[in-house]
Amino acid sequence: AQKVTQAQTEISVVEKEDVTLDCVYETRDTTYYLFWYKQPPSGELVFLIRRNSFDEQNEISGRYSWNFQKSTSSFNFTITASQVVDSAVYFCALSRGSSNTGKLIFGQGTTLQVKP
Amino acid sequence: DTAVSQTPKYLVTQMGNDKSIKCEQNLGHDTMYWYKQDSKKFLKIMFSYNNKELIINETVPNRFSPKSPDKAHLNLHINSLELGDSAVYFCASSPGTGISYEQYFGPGTRLTVT
């Protein structure tokens, strides 16, 4: 079964706190890509990052960092020193190599609320 | 310049009506998608076209019919609208069907069926 699970439905933090959004995936494919998208209150989805199944290097972009661990099938997203503008719904998604159609399987999303 | 645009942004209609949502992308991409986001924010793919050819056709009622007149446009026509069709519909595009491509999403169309 191909599946993405974001167990945290909602997270609420106070500005400047660090927060980690969890993503666990299931796939039998050896080649796949994982993505994170952000959906701010304005509604449209914004691409944040992509990671292929052969690259387990962590990535940092400003206050954002991603931790990919194949051993635990997880691709977690950490926001350091959160800001009110980080308030959004965050989606983790999987694209399978055996499909090759570009089909994205999304997790349920995590709603992050950052309070001032 | 808007990369992926959808019209209308809001659509309120009654059960039984037929409606269309239009999508256009100016990114020069070959592949376009329709997604449905339900009230719990869950996103699910409905259709995908690559160069006007249907690539993905998920388990969607046949009241939904996509049409791609050219690779820059992918429209969604819905017949005999039902209450359960109320959702936000997103159009997206990507350079191709490869698994590595990120998808660029439109602003969404909020459909309310009364």
Specify the oligomeric state.
heterodimer
Through-space gap between termini of chain A: 41 Å
Helix content of chain B: under 10%
Q: Helix/strand-derived class of chain B?
A: mainly beta
Instruction: Output the helix-strand order of chain A.
Output: EEEEEEEEEEEE
H-E string of chain B: EEEEEEEEEEE
Greatest contact pair? A-B, 29 and 28 residues
Q: Count the helices of chain A. How many?
A: 0
Number of strands of chain B: 11
Shape of chain B: globular
Q: What percent of residues of chain B are in strands?
A: over 45%
Give the termini distance of chain B in whole angstroms: 34 Å
Helix content of chain A: under 10%
The proportion of strand residues of chain A reads: over 45%
Question: Would you tell me the overall average pLDDT of chain B?
Answer: 94
What is the radius of gyration of chain B computed over CA atoms, rounded to a whole number of angstroms?
Answer: 13 Å
Biggest sheet of chain A, open or closed, and with what strands and sense? 6 strands, mixed
What would you say this structure looks like, in words?
The complex is a heterodimer of chains A (116) and B (114). With 116 residues, chain A is mainly beta. Chain A is built from no helices and 12 strands. In chain A, strands 2, 5, 6, 10, 11 and 12 form a 6-stranded mixed β-sheet that branches. A 4-stranded antiparallel β-sheet of chain A has the order 3-9-8-7, with no helix packed on it. Chain A is globular. Chain B is an all-beta fold. Chain B is 0% helix and 55% strand. Chain B contains no helices and 11 strands. In chain B, strand 7 and strand 8 (73-78) form a beta hairpin. Classes of the chains: A mainly beta (116), B mainly beta (114). Chains A and B meet through strand 5, strand 6 and strand 10 of A and strand 5, strand 9 and strand 10 of B.
